[in-house]
Records
---
Amino acid sequence: MRAKRCVRVCTRLILLLVVTVTALLAPPPPLFAAGAAPPVPDATVPTVGRAWPVGSHPRILRGWEPPASAYGPGHRGVDLAAPPGTPVRAVAAGRVSFAGRVAGKGVVSVELTGTGEPPLRTTYEPVTATLEEGEEVEPGEVIGTVDTTGSHCTASCVHWGLRRGDTYLNPLSLLPPWLLHRGPSRLLPVYGAA
């Protein structure tokens, strides 16, 4: 009887060890969609961001692809996976400089505090605004929700942009490394000994 119990306990301990080692050695889920390049920080952008626009570490569906010329093709922002109704948050402190519709899409723009002249301005679309133009926002404060229509992504997403004057910049440059590269939390199973 004791031998059977010892075998069961040893088997459970070995299984626990295998599951733990597998979980610890497994790569984290991909942050970037297939073909999307990881961000290259822009040295002209201060890392004032303190929150992702959606979720705690959303999947990037399409990254920053700066155009070769002012009117050339490219992607002037970052597309973050987010289902309709998801709260959209300000990444940094600032003031809502626009909240309305542009070409039929809901857009919210936030002018970021203390980022020089002209100040940096983030944009989020398609978003139904919950704040009005002129309101002050803190990092992580909800500024709206993802609209059900108006997304240019094949799956629902939020397009997050960054500009200084007329120059488009990589919005991921706003995020500090600890926020940008933090992997997801992992829960490991706990097994009883009998």
---
Amino acid sequence: MRESLHDSYENREVPASPILEAVMLQIRPGTANAFEAAFRQASPIIASMKGYCGHDLHRCLETPEKYLLLVRWETLEDHTVGFRGSPDYQTWKQLLHPFYDPFPVVEHFEVLTPFGAS
């Protein structure tokens, strides 16, 4: 059975309306196993950041070289200033950025209407 790349970090408190970072990652053909191994190595880096609330990596069923990364943050600045401005971000880049082709667009979203909540 394949090891999961889902990182819930369940002991974290999640704010009522976290910021969702969404990134469609297209990786170079033939590098999926190496990318997934590098992602497992990089996951504790992002998980250690201030304002981090959790992340998930999804692989596309139709296009095996395509992944969707979803990261939840307390604030936009926790990602754009805190994480990207940290020394640990350089290690994240070294581990993951060589796989991307083309380089991904990072977008941030906020919840407008929560569906399915109790």
---
Amino acid sequence: MTAFPKPVIDAMADRAMRMHHMLWHTTRDSWAVLTADEKEVFSAHGWVPPRPSRGPMDPATGSRPVELDNKSGEDFLYMHRQMIAEVNSILAEVGDPQHPHAQGWAAIPAPDDLDFPVPPAYVLPGDPDSTQGIQDVKLPAEYDRLHALEMQVTDPAVLHQISLGRLGAAVEFFIHNALHMRWSAQMPEYRPGGDAFDVDHKWDDSAYNWLGDTYSSHVNPLFWRIHGWVDARIDDWMAANGLQGQVPWSFDPPWSGPEGGHDHGHHMIAHLALRAQPGNAEADALQTRLSAMETTVEDLKRAGIREPARFPIHHGEL
């Protein structure tokens, strides 16, 4: 697979784009287990997810449930659809015949797929639980689980019976997170997981494109294969429910970040990062938003707030 054109890679590796993607996932995943004081730190900077993606800890199971029915799944589908739209607009301008648009998988690749082989398992230093999770998600048996779920989320009879929000939440936590980790590959070094927001500038190098980190996953070309597959589930749901035209989102629009994070259908950070040039208005606007996110992260650090688990994988049913 050939690399994406440099303008796209550079924009996705931009520090503002990395921070936005990290903070968006963090707030949704963490909100239900934050204290009132910790929520206030996020709130002070506008990072208040209207619909958390995971619930509080269940004392009986010791795990946190996926919020299947609060429509947070729409936020997941919408935000990434906007990212895809921004990238596609730049790819159309670049005119690279090898990358006319961000192309998703038609189906989740099987273990014997020669075009998209599963990278070998590897060790995350100092993190035995995540290391075990990586080993498990790369087993051939994991494909059987994912394929069975894929058959459900592409079945018109199933899609006709569930809401778009439930579909999005199930896809995010039962399939998408596993795809990130299954196709993640060994890196020379990893940004610490669960750390107090390590955003050292060394992680901004475009070579840091590990699929297992929300700070870097979108820099990896396979991110677009995964999210192209995810995005196609919206179209399947629309067709199964006899709908055409605009997606009937329950919110106008769904949540993609603080006020100013979206505008006229754009994913604003991606929009600016893809168009910023030294001295232009887009670069100035992007710097303003980056400065705000830098301040957010520093306040989170001072409050001792830590990042959630990397792409947590849940085993569940629609």
---
Amino acid sequence: MTSTMPTLRDTIAKDLRTQITTGHLKPGARLPSEPKLATHYKVSTPTIRQALALLQAEGLIEKTQGKGNFVHTPLSRITYQGGAGIPFAPALQTTIRTTTVRARGHIRTLLKVPSNTAVTEFHCTTYEGETPRSVARIYVPRDLAPAAQLVSPSWPSSRDVGRTETQETVTARLPTSEEATTLRISPTRTVLTITRIALNSAGRVIEAAILALPSDVADAVFTTRPTLKEGETSR
């Protein structure tokens, strides 16, 4: 039986991981620069970058462009409740931007509308303090989202009007470049995505949403209640 010898990358990542998990490197602490780490470990800068990429993928450190690598500050887990569209919690604040786009490609397929149909896009980002926790793009056919509703203080709770069925698909994948930038995460860090389709009683798609959350600090909870058969009563 053969064993695989750890590479320099793995050895360096293990040492830094130990320093983080034992508290030698505190949350929020800035790591030495890549050239300094290369000198310390007596390796090349590309090897250091490979080791740091491992730690980024594990969510132990985060890289801020132009500032360096920092020990990840632990965040509370965020829970997505099935059917909600985007997470809501007392600790979260949500920013919403709206624009009108034309339905093409994947969006046209989700909404089941002709190509170039006018669609209102809601771009929603939730924050805990200054840290982004989730990003969602919600699409509504323009005739169902007149301009007067876009600034309504009741949004998004008012979106349930006319909804009779919700279909949700949960997937774990790597983030798109836009999601990674908005969430300020490594492109190698997995995200949990929920694709949500809402239909009315006529079977028309009245809303399509794509939500992304870093999977290592997110849960998705779905509650199912059995439908009673005719003549049965709940206990």
